[in-house]
Amino acid sequence: MVSMANQRSPGDKLTELSASLSLVANNRDKEAFARLFDHYAPLIRAYSLAREPGADLVADELVQEVMTRVWLKADKYNDRLANLNTWIFTLARNCRIDYLRRNSRYLTEIDPTDIFNEIEDDGPGPFQQVQQSRAEESIRAGLKQLPREQAEILTKVYLEGKSHQQASNELKLPLGTVKSRVRLALKKLEVLVVR
Amino acid sequence: MNNANKHPEDELLAAYSAASLPLSQALCISIHLERCPDCGRKLQRLNRVGSELMQQLKPAPAADELKNRLLDRLDSLSEENSEQAHPLPDSTVPRCLQQFVHGNYDDLPWRRVSADIRSVELCRDSNGARVELLKIKPGGSAITHTHLGDEYTVILEGSFSDEAGLYGEGDFLLRGKHDKHTPVASLHRECLCLAVTEGPIQFTGFFSRLMNPFIRRSYA
Ligand SMILES: [Zn+2]
User: Fold this and answer.
1) What is the whole-number distance in angstroms between the Cα of residue B128 and the centre of ligand 1?
2) Which residues of B touch A63 (CB under 8 A)?
3) Residue A10 in this model has a pLDDT that exceeds 70
4) Residue range B18-40, pLDDT digits in tens
5) Which of B26, B48, B50 sits opposite A135 (nearest CB)?
6) Residue A127 pLDDT more than 70?
7) Is the Cβ of A104 closer than 8 Å to some Cβ of chain B?
8) Do A71 and B99 touch (CB under 8 A)?
9) Using the 8-state DSSP alphabet, how is residue A163 labeled?
10) Any idea where the domains of chain B sit in the sequence?
11) In the CATH scheme, what is the code of domain B1-220?
């Protein structure tokens, strides 16, 4: 039997989560923070495990790192720049590369901290005013309809954190094919119709 | 002549959005993004792709202990953090480059490559790519060269042109293995750019002065 909670659309859930974030930002509300944790921690762990399968401790550390930033930066979050899911994704992405660097997986002196900006840092101006919720809906629908090999490549790039070169080695495909699959997938998702 | 692409290709921007590209490439794109609202808007949408993919992952539940430990620490977190607001220094150096350029570009240990070109190596990436700043004097040129790997360039100040077109501040160029390429700085000011060169490169005679009689005459 399907419960009421499961029948709500992702949009309703997101509205509820955004309300919790406001409570964290304005009232330092720990119960609201716990609700955010309950929703996002399992996704953040899954995101970490996608890159390092089996590394549960690393996944826990990423959760701590990301949720700490959520607590500290809740008041900087600007819902006109990105929805909450996207904000959390960029935090998780940035914390994950920070972690990789701190554990010297990169073997380079380049510090990623100021390279991958957090969304609130982008400041006002050109980055605003995209028809947010409609775009999200179309991306979500589009992802479901992608041909398998295009979905696979997006998963490698976004979730497993593979460079085009690494994806090409793993899938035994020419580099050019990897790139064109990414491009085709993005075209299908209609994310690049801006210009 | 000016139909050159001055922006990173979509799939490169997607790799940036996913943070799954070599950091030296990310550095170039980050500089471009500071100056290109169009790519900024694209990036916003690309981040949403990452976000949707993340939402579709099968959740991996966290232990209650993890939550409780964090909840217990929240108050002390706020205190620790209140000290570390770091305002951006007032600088023309892009933010992501400030890790290498602390004050002024002029203070860096520039070395002479040719009569027209000065360079300073900032670092190497883990894929071996060389990250350097290049300064080409007004009207100066790099001789036609090809590379054994890809070369990523972003213009920081000034402008230059090559076979494909004219590039100004913030413009991004990617030249592949077999592209021939002869950048010439514009006449009125020197051109400063960040270049990331992948793969082995031959240093000897890589850049040299182009004896262009036209430019020399107009300069006299
Ligand atoms: Zn651009």
Assistant:
1) 26
2) 62, 66
3) yes
4) 999 999 999 999 999 999 999 99
5) B48
6) no
7) no
8) no
9) -
10) 1-220
11) 2.60.120.10
